[in-house]
Design goal:
By secondary structure, the protein is α/β, with parallel strands linked by helices. The chain contains 7 helices and 11 strands. The protein has a single domain, classed as Dihydrofolate Reductase, subunit A. It is globular and about 55 Å long. About 3% of the residues have low confidence. The structure holds NADP nicotinamide-adenine-dinucleotide phosphate. NADP nicotinamide-adenine-dinucleotide phosphate (NAP) binds next to strand 3, strand 4, helix 3 and helix 7. Pathway: Cofactor biosynthesis; riboflavin biosynthesis. Keywords: NADP, Oxidoreductase.
Length: 254
C-alpha cells in the first residue's frame, strides 16, 4: 500500500469514527501522537501484520497501476500509525518498484510514541525479490533484501548490500523462514504492505496474525490484481470509517 512518496510530515488527516469490536463507536479526531489509533492497533513483538487497501471492486491498484489513487487522508492516517508501530515494512519487489519505495521517515508526533515504546528510531524496509532489482530510493542503511540461494540478486547487488542480504530459502523465499530471519535481526514487528502476490503467499502459509484491510470507494483498474480475502479463522477487532473508506482490523483467533 503506497504512501512512501507522500510527505510524512503533513498534518494528521481527517476525522474517523468507529472503534474496537464491542465498544460503542466514537469519533477520533486528528491527533499528532495518534494515541487512540495506537491503542486500536497495538503491535506486539512477534506479530506479522498485513495492511492493504482494496478498491470498491476488490482490486489492488487504480488506473495508474499503483494503489495511490485508491487511498485518502483517512486510511493514510492509519498507515502512518501502523508504520510507526513496526520494526520493518516488508514488501514484494514489484510493489517497491511500482510504488517507488524509498527509506521511510516517521512523523514527528509519532516518533516520540515510538521512543516511548522502546522501538528503534527508524523503520527498516525489507524487499522480497528474486531478481534483486530495487528502486533507487532504498539504501543499504535502511533496507534488507530478502531472497533465496538460487537468486541472481546476490550477484546483481553491489558489495554495499552484502550485510543486508537475507537468504530465506533455496529456490524460492519461504515466508516463514523470512519472518524468522527478520526476527533474528531484532525485526519482529513486521508490517507487510503487499503486493497481492507476496500477501497471498503469507496468508496461504498462515504467517499473518493481523490483517488491516481498507475498503476504498474508488473503482480499481480492470487489469489490476485482486486483493486476497481475509482467511477463515480471523475475527474483526476494530472498524473505522471516514470519507467513504471503511478500515477493518482482523486478528487471528487464538
Ligand atoms: N492495494 C494495496 O494495498 C497494494 C499494496 C501493495 C501493492 N499494490 C499494487 O500491487 C501491484 C504489485 O503487486 P504484485 O502482486 O504484482 O507484486 P508484489 O507481491 O509486490 O511483488 C512480487 C515480486 O516479489 C518478489 N517475490 C514475491 N514472492 C517471492 C518469493 N517467494 N521468492 C522470491 N521473490 C519473490 C518477486 O520480485 P522480483 O520481480 O524482483 O523477482 C516478485 O516479482 C502494484 O500494482 C502495486 O501498486 C497494491
Amino acid at each position: 500500500m503506497a504512501d512512501h512518496t507522500a510527505p510524512e510530515h503533513t498534518p494528521p488527516g481527517a476525522t474517523l469514527t468507529g472503534g474496537a469490536r464491542g465498544e460503542p463507536p466514537g469519533e477520533i479526531p486528528p491527533d499528532p501522537a495518534e494515541a487512540r489509533l495506537r491503542a486500536l492497533y497495538p503491535h506486539r513483538a512477534g506479530i506479522v501484520r498485513l495492511n492493504l487497501i482494496a478498491s470498491a471492486d476488490g482490486k489492488a491498484a487504480g488506473a495508474d497501476g499503483t494503489s495511490r489513487g485508491l487511498g485518502g487522508p483517512e486510511d493514510q492516517r492509519i498507515l502512518a500509525v501502523l508504520r510507526a508501530l513496526c520494526d520493518v515494512v516488508l514488501v514484494g519487489a514489484q510493489t517497491a518498484r511500482r510504488e517507488r519505495y524509498a527509506d521511510l521517515a516517521v512523523r514527528p508526533g509519532l516518533a516520540q510514541a515510538r521512543t516511548m515504546l522502546g522501538l528503534r528510531e527508524h523503520v527498516d524496509v525489507a524487499v522480497v525479490t528474486h531478481t534483486g532489482n530495487l528502486p533507487p530510493g532504498l539504501t543499504p542503511a535502511r533496507t534488507w533484501v530478502v531472497t533465496h540461494a538460487g537468486s541472481p540478486a546476490t550477484a546483481r547487488l553491489g558489495p554495499e548490500w552484502a550485510e543486508r542480504l537475507i537468504i530465506a530459502g533455496d529456490q524460492d523465499v519461504s515466508p516463514r523462514t523470512a519472518i524468522g530471519q527478520l526476527g533474528a535481526r531484532g525485526l519482529s514487528r513486521v508490517l507487510c504492505e503487499g503486493g497481492p502476490t507476496l500477501a497471498g503467499r503469507l496468508l496461504n502459509r498462515g504467517v499473518v496474525d493481523d490483517y488491516c484491510l481498507t475498503e476504498s470507494p474508488v473503482v480499481g483498474a480492470a487489469a489490476a490484481p485482486a486483493i486476497p480475502p481475509v482467511p477463515a479463522g480471523m475475527d474483526e477487532a476494530a472498524t473505522l470509517e471516514g470519507g467513504g473508506f471503511v478500515m477493518r482490523r482482523w486478528t487471528r483467533r487464538s
